[in-house]
Amino acid sequence: MTKKEKIDTLSEKVVPQQPFGTAERARRNFNAKLSHPLAGFSHTKLRNQGRMFAELHEMGDKSDMRAFELGAVLAQSPEQYDNVAGLTNKEKAVLRREVTHRWSQPWKMYVVITLCSLSATVQGMDQTVVNGAQIFYKHQFGIGDESSRSAWLVGLVNSAPYLCCAFISSWLTVPFNYWFGRRGTIFIACCLSAITCLWQGFVSTWWAMFVARFMLGFGIGPKSATVPIYAAETAPPSIRGALVMQWHVWTAFGIMVGYASDLIFYNVESSTIVGLNWRCMMASVMFPALVDCCFVFACPESPHWYIRQKQYYRAYRSICTLRNHKIQAARDLYYRHTLLEAENSAKLGRNKLLELIKVSRNRRAMLASQIVMFMQQFCGVNVISYYSSEIFLEANFSPPAALAASLGWGLINWLPIKPGNLHNRHIRPTQSPITHLPTHVHGNAIHRVQLLDPREQPPCTSRLHRFRNISFRRGLLTGRGARAIYIHSRSVPVIRPVIWNGARHGNDVVL
Asked: Domain Major facilitator superfamily (MFS) profile spans what residues (predicted)?
């Protein structure tokens, strides 16, 4: 039997196989090179490459040269450290502990985790403090009546940050990261968030609030795209997925804290300052944002960003503070270098927009992520975070009870979260029905209330009817759309899901 034939296991016949075309062979070679650029090299060759790399970039003394010699070999097969000649028993124990105790990390790594978690908390608070504040400021601004104009203006003011994210600020993520680095971008975004949150506490008209909240979008867009990237680029492979998922965990925590802030400042009154309570609610987010600004530069810069800037020595010193041993740092740095070299040799990066369409793995990842992020907002779930207090008020709750009920929703939204060990491609199909079914039931319940005789209906106004439309109709669509698989690809920028997220989020809040 020739190489171009195989046996059909059902009919036991020899079936001739068509040879791969030139394009298919090139595609397979291209993917293999990108997935493992060090495959096929001998240990001696890898040692020489590691030493040459360290000498070329003047990495340090003899111990650093040795670290890169061994690190280059380990980069080929990190789990087969027992087969690498030259490693001491202590170094093997460090590499073994990396697998058995994956959360045993240097303190600098935990500083990075704290920074990313606090940034996500600021993001969640930015989203929900307006939930309780709008109960008061819409009447003070003259847009609290039941007219269509007032309803649209309230929605426009609430959605302003994400309108800015969708059309302007998210597009600034790439240039900000190129000019200022990961830490600089986070610092600028948190500064803008603190300033605009304080600004919101001093406005006296709806259009001034709209402008202040629109400017808040410049603190939300770049930060929401940069922080997960920063976490991924600094974390070791064993905990990388968990750290990226921490963004969602602590954003949910920030959503809950935003509701708590509304409840805390509800009874704040002043005879000289009109609306002091809602002003304190809106300005409260500035405090965690300022804390974020104060210690962002206590964290090391992303080694990957230094590599992109051709600053290899700084990249090595940065990653050394994030690993328990020099050999781990040299291994990870050299492997990242070889991946970038493989991309450059394959002529990647020449036209990134065209590559999103032409390269099949990029195209599939982009489409899947766009569908997931679009449907996340299209289902209307996040509308609850903006209007839950309004909904409870119109269901005949008192203002404190409505704020407390919103806090309960935020608590339930955060407590059950546990970053999973499954990949996103496995999580999405299982979590989509969980997103769809409660939304469907909730919307259908409100729909049935509308069908009752008017004398039997509980207090339920047109806003509840609109909420029913959003949650019921879009809940059905979520069951179809969010089955898409999010495939993480290094070549697909995080900015694009963020743009879709912002666009749909802003549109839903307006509605």
From this structure: 112-511
